[in-house]
Amino acid sequence: MIEFIVKLHPEISIKSKSVRKRQTMLLEQNIKTILLRLDPAVEVHNLYDHLTVRLDKDDEKLRQQMAEHLQCIPGIVQFAEMQSASFDSLHHIFEQVLALYRDELSGKSFVVRVRRSGDHSFSSLDAERYIGGGLNQHIPTARVQLKNPDVSVQLEIRRDNLIMKKRIYQGMGGFPLPSQGDVLSLISGGFDSAVASYLMIRKGLRTHFLFFNLGGAAHETGVRQMAFYIWQKYSLSHKVKFVSVDFAPVVDEILSRIPSGLMGVVLKRMMMRSAAVVAESLNVKAVVTGESIGQVASQTIVNLNVIDRVTDTLILRPLIYQDKQEIIDIARAIGVEDMAKTMPEYCGVISRSPTINAVLTDVLAAEQQFDFSILDKVSQEAKVLDIRTVEYQAEQQLTTVATESVLPSDAIVLDVRAPDETDLHPLQLDSHQVQELPFFRIASQFAGLDQSKQYYLYCDRGVMSRLQALLLKEQGYQNVGVYKKA
Description:
The chain is α/β, with parallel strands linked by helices. The chain has helices at 10-13, 17-35, 60-70, 90-105, 124-138, 191-202, 216-234, 248-257, 263-281, 301-308, 324-334, 337-341, 360-367, 372-380, 390-397, 419-424, 442-445, 463-474; strands at 2-8, 43-46, 50-55, 76-86, 109-117, 143-144, 151-158, 161-170, 182-186, 206-213, 241-246, 286-288, 314-316, 383-386, 402-404, 412-415, 433-436, 455-458, 480-483.
């Protein structure tokens, strides 16, 4: 049997009874929504101060997949993998605990904690003393320490069933989706916007994505990949929107109408105006940006104040006090560092001497020269996609890219998955050479491959491989296809 005990984020535990009940019910439903896709026999039980997840199978791959998903569901601070066994005496319990914990307790301090329910000849305290004493005797380098031990041996005895914590995992914490409502996050594919989006998801906000396209189809493909990754890993329980606005006409108008020093601030004001329009159309009450004080010229307090004046829509800036290195560290921890690092920069407008102290009256005077019908047009023509259809959109565009399950004998399979995925589940083909090239490095490294060869891109679901094949085709490469397992 596969069993996990799920611990709630502490902030959920201190809420009022009604709020706590609502949030645990949301968390229960979110866990079911995600894990039932792995196996329809998964059981999730809400026990008020914790939840349990059970599957009556002994499948190591399923166990691993369930743990990976639980680590990325908002609202879970920690969960433990449990091992169940029967017993016929207290000494039998001790023997099983010793076998499981012997190696882990070597050279460490420990304490034994027991929760017991049912009719037994011993109390919980009796069990803690007996098992703890036995472990202390049989593991010479281990020692009992009741306060702040290295290891806490936590056991549950339910009637004739012993449940031992085999391994403890850390979750992402936060609040369950969508307990705090919806937001619209401006995403560019870089570190800041990706981390800001993640932090909003962690806070229990269903996070939709808004992209201002300054670099054409290739730029949009890269940002879609980033948004899709964040959604699939951390927000899979709920559908969200990916909105794309062609902002190139707005940039052209700014370049021709706005004084150089004010271009950056005016561009951000135009983006906020457009974001407010899109948010209203989606009935979303707040916009999220990845801005941080002082990171660039437009992000001084004075300039941010001027930017915010264009809309009554709430603007959230979760990174406002973060240093760049702190942001990069979070990006690395959540798995988007390499993607963000290889995303091309599309600045839109570059001022030789950008102002760091924009005066609102000067900005308003400059904007009088701007043709706002252009902004209205691009905002009204925004493309709104269900992010779950990113895969479908790629399939519809893939008419010129071959998808094969049987490959030519001399073909090379490019595994475009992220390194953590290939490490866990390496692709091994007896008949063909497999070369690992993560999708976020294809744009910079594909040209260096032997172009006399035919390459077929592979990923588990086929989303990234299709999008990257499309991008390579658009760049003129004809020796690419998509590999799909038969």
